[in-house]
Amino acid sequence: MKNILMGGVAFLAAYIEPIKTALLIFPFLALAISTIFFVYEYRKYGSFLVFRGVVLYSFVFYLLCAYLLVILPLPSREAVAQLTGPSMELSLGASLRHFMEQTVLNIKDPSTYLPAMKQSVFLEPAFNILILIPFGVFLRYLTKLRWYQLVLASFCLSLFFELTQLTGLYFIYPRSYRLFDVNDLLHNTLGGLIGFWLEPLLTFLLPSNEKLAETAYQRGKEVTLVRRLVAFGLDWLFLGGVDILVTLGITIGTGQRTEITNTFWWYLLEVFLYFVCIPWLTNGKTLGKAIVKIQVAEVGRKRIRFTALLKRYGILYFFYGGYSHIFQGIAPFLKSENPYLIFISTGLVVFGFLITGVFFLVMVWSFLRRKRQLFYENASKTYVFSTVVPK
Q1: Residue 86 region, left (φ>0) first, then alpha (ψ -120 to 50), else beta?
Q2: Which label site among 27, 87, 130, 283 has the fewest CB atoms less than 10 Å from its CB?
Q3: Cβ-contact 68, 158 below 8 angstroms
Q4: 280 forms bridges with which residues in the sheet?
Q5: Which residues pair with 385 in a beta bridge?
Q6: Are 197 and 150 within 8 A, CB to CB?
Q7: E-assigned strands of the chain?
């Protein structure tokens, strides 16, 4: 019995390292996918459910672990170059044949059951089945795939794993360092199908995907401050990309590095064109707002006026970033030898810090109170509403 346990531990030990690696990589992967998931959720439902996020993150973590189990541990290129064994097993049913030839199992003798289960001819097919059972569970819970669609998805995932091995980790290695086996395709696909069948037994205590969608749509009718913050981040992410392209274009064209995108006038131009002119043409939408399905409107009007947008975003972006650009122009006067200039510029800087600090305190207070309409919206008589339409 002790030898059996030791054999099982030795087999599992080979897979502990991939899971440890997944635990190290996953927080960064989660950070990368969070923006994409936020955008998808807000785009489809107009809201973000934490529970759905936890389920999706768990799914991503599982996929990451499965992938690392396929590729790790990584050998050296020199060791792989010296391999001479076969790189492919194309005989379907070979795993069953090897099991029948090598197993110590005797159905009539229960004492052979455990020894047979620690043999590689049993453990390898069993592992290949087990590794895709969670895939079937997750995919059925998160989607509306039918069993034959799940079979196809499981086969495609297994084929991706096998091709990763066959190509030597996408030709990083001179040849494959693990065997491409068509039997693994069968075992993995079977595992995905078993997971599909087991899903109702494993998730019956959880809310259904349809119920989650209904809840998300109900919440999507409200425009939360977090949702607006996501739109804000997307807008400035887009403008940041525009700044990079403009800088690169001018630098390549003139052969000299430019600082034009860091100037106050460029900031004013961006705010005017992107947050005033474009929403005036689209009746209250920017790229970020369109993605999360919200829209700016003016009280009592079907179409928002240019002056309302100018007042709304003029107030907001003067406090948000305008004064920091003005400070860049004032800063050189702080080093002046003229005491009057130093006094005036110091006063302007202190005043700027005060009003900017008050602005951010007001915004934080609004978030804490969950106040829907902010001070610059009251001044411009504008508001934000949801454009989500439940399906």
Answers
A1: beta
A2: 27
A3: no
A4: none
A5: 295
A6: no
A7: 88-89, 180-181, 294-298, 382-386
